[in-house]
Amino acid sequence: MAKFDFSDDSVVVVIGSGAGGGTLANELCQKGIKVVVLEAGAKQSSASFINDEWKSFSQLAWLDKRTTSGSWRVAKDFAGLPAWICKTVGGTTTHWAGASLRFQEHEFRTKTFYGEVKGANLLDWPITLKDLEPYYAKAEDKMGVTRTNGIPGLPGNNNFKVMYNGASKLGYKEVHTGRMAINSQPRDGRGRCMQLGFCFQGCKSGAKWSTLYTEIPKAEATGNFEIRAQSHVSRIEHNAAGKVTGVVYFDKDGKEQRQKARIVCVAGNSIETPRLLLLSASNMFKDGLANSSGQVGRNYMRHMTGSVYAAFKNPVHMYRGTTMAGIVRDEAGHNPNRGFVGGYEMETLSLGVPFMAAFLNPGGWGADFSWWMDHYTNLAGMWLVGEDMPRESNRVTLNTNVKDQWGNYAPNVHFDDHDNDIAMRNHAFTQGERIYQAAGAIRTFRTPPYPSTHNMGTCRMSARPEDGVVNKYGQSHDIPNLFISDGSQFTTGGAENPTLTIVTLAIRQAEYIAQQMTERAI
Amino acid sequence: MRVISIASDSPEVAGCDEESGVVRKVNMPLARRDFLKGSGVLLGTLATGSLLAGLAPSTAWALELKTLSTEEGQTLMAMGRVLFPHQKLPDAVYALLSKDLDAKASADAGAAKMLKDGIAWLNKSAGGNFGKASATKREEIVRGMEGTAFFATVRGQCVTSLYDNDMAFAVFGYPGSAWEKGGYITRGFQDLKWLPAPSKEASPPPYLG
Questions:
Q1: CB pair distance less than 8 Å for B195 and A319
Q2: Contact in structure between A126 and A471 (CB atoms under 8 Å)
Q3: Distance, CA of A321 to CA of A1 (rounded, Å)
Q4: Residue B209: its chain A contacts at CB < 8 A?
Q5: Which of A272, A445, B87, B88 has its CA 20 to 30 A from that of A357?
Q6: Which chain B residues contact residue A153 at CB under 8 A?
Q7: Tell me, what's the pLDDT at B37?
Q8: How many CB atoms lie within 10 A of CB B5?
Q9: Model ipTM?
Q10: pLDDT digit string (tens) for B17-35?
């Protein structure tokens, strides 16, 4: 691994090493560009990952102080944990389930397709599916997505078998083991899925794509790459000309450091990214960096989510095997006859006994709750994930009453479900229950949303600077050498799990940055 | 290329019975009463011949409390059974709830007072002994406390105390960690027989290279 000087102002500083930051860094390094990645979390490995839900949670999750507000149920059930995302090298690619679906064409143009939706801040992306297709193809190849590039689908587990039978009886057609960035056969120096059932706890077989053991070592091999783990960036600095010049961070010993940079790319996930821009407010940028539109932190999206669990007379053992290798896609399209705009996916999901107790029905107790736990081995489960509406009032702000361990204001995440989200969730709950009833369920249960795993939109892309924070390459409208490189860029959320699109945008952004550097435009 | 072997399970691991969910190690403190010096002690025995008795080095168990009294510990166990009633879970698991709450009380005087007051209220509401009240009465009393800090603390503690231990895993049929056994690729991840198998297009066969 290379070692760059704090005063080296020729480097690109990337903040975060997950799907966006890790991918962008590697792509830049492959083009001969020098990169310093600052990652707040510590480094783990397949060897150090733990097949134990609570222990793994302590090892990987971002547990710095956060607060919540708004009418969403997460604020009541998990007031200090709005999101279940990670603070570790590789970011949330250590924890993600691997589902890798392209956005649909209409999801890039929701304002055009859905029309005016009251209380929603819809906007068309400044790019289309056609613009992204070549980059989607690169991302799928890089990540080894099943059912692309001639890679076979994963074998379905028992949980999928239940979903498949119920969904088929109901007449659903697009039901399979998904497009997953998990090796169904050995590929790219990594083995095939061992069906461990602990996808969320960091993949101990390395079959699931994570920047931790793909992008990052590949970047290291170029000699252009340095990663500093346990380095928490607290501020981005700029000069009198309004260009960013570097970042201030706390290193692993808690010592404040300053790294100079030619370009700064922020990929801290959609809560930390806007928080950092807001924390970097200055005399010149009083409302925070890149915030002339006032949109930094706004339009926070977290997907319409929910889960359905069902009990059967016979055992399922849903915890065995790839957690999310199972999908029903028939409800993913836009069909306003259902009473809402946008669509949703139904994907297999299971939790172990410890997390089932925590998440099945937060706050619940009594004989009925116990009944579900008693039937653990006979349960099947699915996750519902669909497009939620961007709203200006759903936003990440600085909570000036609460500080983190570095003395900086903690982020507050405010969210109110839009009526469209609620209508979609009810529809999805009903369809999920019908699937399991068709497969012979004796009881079904509607589990409310978990802390957000899909966080998007807080620095959104827009054609016009007044509508959003970044342009179609993720470059901020206000500051040409400041980029947003994670899901914060999403103009709208689509129905699909966001990681593939984050990786796709990072590949495209790297190409643009390299070209701009060559032209000396930045 | 990194490859994890799936062939050679150790004999110890191979002895794990998936169906019954039997696991190897029991995470339960056992001590003889003679050596206990705390404020209280919870004692019990696992039913001979039960699933759990087979796992433990001894069927007798004892658990020391540092701040709460024996009676207070027993009341919390009874409340745990109202909140999360599981016939198959032995008292030894509910005793873990009292132990964990006792640890909270030992670390924080405010928490100790809140717990002791809450326990006293449970007993008072039951006319003296919460544990001896009828099942209906116990549930009525606990329901009446919903919304209090005491209720939230005990209920919240139950989630990890009752469900995140090896005895609970064994009772609920959850085998826990899977990687050291080679995952489930050759151990039944698609062994469900009561529904027809999906098409090969929907679910291709596993690669066993």
A1: no
A2: yes
A3: 36
A4: 185-186, 192
A5: A272
A6: 202-204
A7: 66
A8: 7
A9: 0.94
A10: 444 343 333 334 444 444 5
